[in-house]
Amino acid sequence: MGNHSDDHPAKPEGTSEVEAKAGQTVLDKFENPGLPPHRPRLADTEPRAAKRAERQVVVLFLISVIGTLLFFFAYFGVHLDQSIGALRLQNMLLGLGTAFAMLGIGTGIVHWAKTLMPDHEVSEERHELRSEADRQDAVEIADTIIEEAGIKRRPLIRNTLIGAIALAPLPAIVMFRDLDLNPDVNKLRHTMWKEGTRLVKDPTGTPIKAADVTIGSAFHVIPEGLNELEEGKLNEKAKAVVLLMRLNPDELHPSPGREDWGYNGIVAYSKICTHVGCPVALYEQQTHHLLCPCHQSTFDLTQECKVIFGPAKRPLPQLPIKVDAEGYLVAQSDFHEPVGPSYWERG
């Protein structure tokens, strides 16, 4: 085997193998490639195209205004007759109105910038603003930007933008002002549940026998007679809806005085999360945990729905239940504490 050093001549010091093969040299700094040539847009060269783009921006701002008005129509004009259909219609219109209000402003400004505002690329050296002269230069630059944006020359765009921006925050203001900051807790302390009220399936209203509830099963339950209400149906349901589950009785650990609040491992708890009132709808059969999907508050069913994770501060209220003479599950009484969120003052 020969020595390969003869086949490859020695490289000069300080030169890498790549540089030696490619003949590259090390530069002190990159050369300035300059700015690419400016390509004028259609609106820059054709007045009709610029006018068309201006009308499109105005239409987008008007869509924002219409979206805001749609929100107010849905909020004040849609009559909630306690039916699910009316509630869904209002929620849909509220969502569409808010979406169009925000989308119209955003897309309008973007379209304005892309089609009508100056798009020349500029390169400037960075320097500090230290003197009053520099600050005056900054003011002049801002004035130049306003002038080049065409706000003064395009009053239709300016006026529709001002109108859209003025109306857009109003839905949020109305919704926040409508919040009840000092609610009457007694409204949440009492529900439709009372002694002897049958537990029925939601939404069919079918009564539930204890024999129908198997270990590991979960039912969404409302009080019998709720579906027949003419007024206040949704409000009553929001307070009274419960989750019904059955566990092995040996896995339950009731506190003193609550030993008879269930029946043979069947227990019922309020479905309304004690954090901000979202519906607790996820039941983990293996761990016996109830999970609120909004903020992941987790309640342990074996420990009277004690909070084991998340922002909720108190357990879910338990509904005492028993079995009547016909084998149907009925309530022993109403909840012994208010249902729903815990952030209100509870006098």
Summarize the structure.
By secondary structure, the protein is of the alpha+beta class. It has 9 helices and 10 strands.
Walk me through the structure.
The protein is an alpha+beta fold. It folds into two domains: 127 residues; 146 residues, 3-layer Sandwich (Rieske Iron-sulfur Protein), CATH 2.102.10.10. Helices cover 36% and strands 11% of the residues. The protein has nine helices and ten strands. The strands form three sheets. It has a four-stranded antiparallel sheet. Helix 3 runs antiparallel to helix 4 and helix 3 packs parallel to helix 6. The chain is elongated, with a radius of gyration of 34 Å. The N and C termini lie far apart (98 Å).
Main-sheet strand order equals 1-2-3-4
Low-confidence stretches: 14-20
CATH superfamily descriptor of the largest domain: Rieske [2Fe-2S] iron-sulphur domain
Give the strand tally: 10
| Main beta-sheet strand count, sense and barrel state | 4 strands, antiparallel
Helix content: 25-40%
Q: What global shape is seen?
A: elongated
Task: Note the gap between the termini.
Answer: 98 Å
CATH class of the largest domain: Mainly Beta
Number of helices: 9
Q: Give the mean pLDDT.
A: 84
CATH level 3 topology of the largest domain: Rieske Iron-sulfur Protein
- Which percent band covers the strand fraction? 5-15%
Assembly state of the chains shown: single chain
Number of structural units classed as domains: 2
